[in-house]
Specification:
By secondary structure, the protein is mainly alpha-helical. α3 runs parallel beside α6. The termini are close together.
């Protein structure tokens, strides 16, 4: 029997079902406010500002093509009337059409890959044109950022049953697998040397783990099976789950050589309610391990934030239902991300060096009062899209 992820959540941990439903309602109410006038593009972020009397105002800032594409990937799972309510009268396929038409001006590989992925998933008739733009931007032999390389593979996996992409698919799959350092389970920040300074090349982020493991799982599921790709996804997932914090935190920066944590903070809301579930659900859907316990633990962080509970005077909710936002992260407030820089450089010299006095100086009790469209796009993808 096929049941929804929400139904499974209600069966396994009923107390979290209401939280997930609440978050999905916030996503559907918040996304229309993030559309720019005309309804053809999404803002980069919504920034919140609190007045002395306690009221909030939100300001749209910037524009983001990739966030728009991620939103389309998630919104497509809603019934048509709710798609139109979110996308100013358009369906996810119609909105994706706007993105496809914009591709000649898109110069970022990740943006193009996400648009192609959305075109494949929505059945857009110009999928071949979208893939051609990805191909034009993905120069053979040139290193790419791991996240963008993963999106290329996910797009090609989604397109395999519609368009002949086998040559490009194999190259994208092999590139991700080769990117790992030695026998380590984690992925670096780039697929090869040249994009990062030497002192930072070993440091990778949470997104560098979730998007490749998702892409490799989807690659396995898209054809006749790929045990090597599935095993790599499994190993990465098992490692980040083993490192998960006691409060459900998905940590931010890792040492791709050793598989350890370089610096845990910030803790991003999108990791907790959307990105980790998205990747781990796709892994389970591909026949991999069910990491549902880790997903549920991470989701619970949204309303039980130990970093803020330790300082009652700084405590505030991460979910603001009336505003249609979830605040972006809890962080240290250190100037110019000094803790990450110090720990990254320290790990380069000695992988076991922790610099623990920095934890006493810079405590993670600051809240970043922003919310970005992709946070809700991946949330809808994870919880509305997956089936078991």
């Amino acid at each position: 029997m096929t049941i929804t992820r929400l139904a499974a959540l209600g069966r396994d941990e009923p107390s979290l079902l209401a939280l997930a439903q609440r978050l999905l309602a916030v996503a559907e109410s918040g996304l229309p406010r993030m559309l720019l006038p005309g309804g053809e593009a999404f803002a980069f972020t919504m920034a919140g500002r609190r007045a002395p009397g306690g009221s909030w105002t939100l300001e749209r800032r910037g524009t983001s093509t990739r966030y728009a594409a991620i939103t389309a990937l998630g919104v497509r799972f809603l019934p048509e009337d709710r798609q139109r309510a979110v996308l100013a009268g358009r369906t996810a396929e119609e909105f994706t059409g706007l993105l496809v038409e914009s591709l000649p001006a898109v110069t970022n590989l990740g943006d193009a890959a996400l648009i192609a992925w959305a075109a494949a998933e929505t059945g857009h008739p110009k999928l071949s044109d979208a893939l051609a733009r990805v191909d034009a931007l993905d120069e053979e032999g040139r290193p790419q950022y791991t996240v963008e390389a993963a999106w290329v593979l996910s797009a090609l996996a989604a397109a395999r049953n519609t368009v002949d992409v086998e040559g490009r698919f194999s190259a994208a799959r092999d590139r991700l697998l080769r990117a790992r350092i030695g026998d380590g389970p984690l992925f670096p920040h780039a697929t090869g040397p040249g994009l990062l300074p030497w002192y930072r090349a070993h440091v990778s982020c949470f997104a560098d783990q979730t998007y490749p493991l998702q892409a490799l799982a989807r690659a396995h599921a898209s054809g006749d099976g790929d045990p090597e790709a599935l095993a790599a996804a499994e190993a990465c997932a098992a490692r980040i789950c083993a490192l998960q914090g006691d409060g459900g935190q998905w940590w931010w920066h890792y040492d791709a050589r050793t598989g350890g944590v370089v610096e845990g903070y910030p803790v991003y809301s999108v990791h907790q309610h959307a990105m980790a579930p998205t990747a781990l659900f796709d892994l389970a859907d591909a026949g991999g391990t069910d990491f549902g316990a880790a997903i549920r633990k991470g989701l619970g962080w949204m309303t039980d934030v130990p970093e803020l509970a330790a300082r009652p005077e700084r405590r505030e909710p991460m979910i603001l239902d009336d505003l249609g936002v979830t605040w972006r992260k809890v962080h240290r407030g250190d100037p110019r991300k000094a803790v990450r820089a110090a720990r990254g450089l320290g790990a380069r010299v000695s992988p076991k060096l922790r610099l623990t006095p920095l934890d006493r100086v810079y405590r993670p009790v600051s809240v970043d009062r922003e919310c970005r469209p992709y946070e809700f796009g991946w949330m809808l993808y994870a919880w509305e899209g997956s089936r078991i």
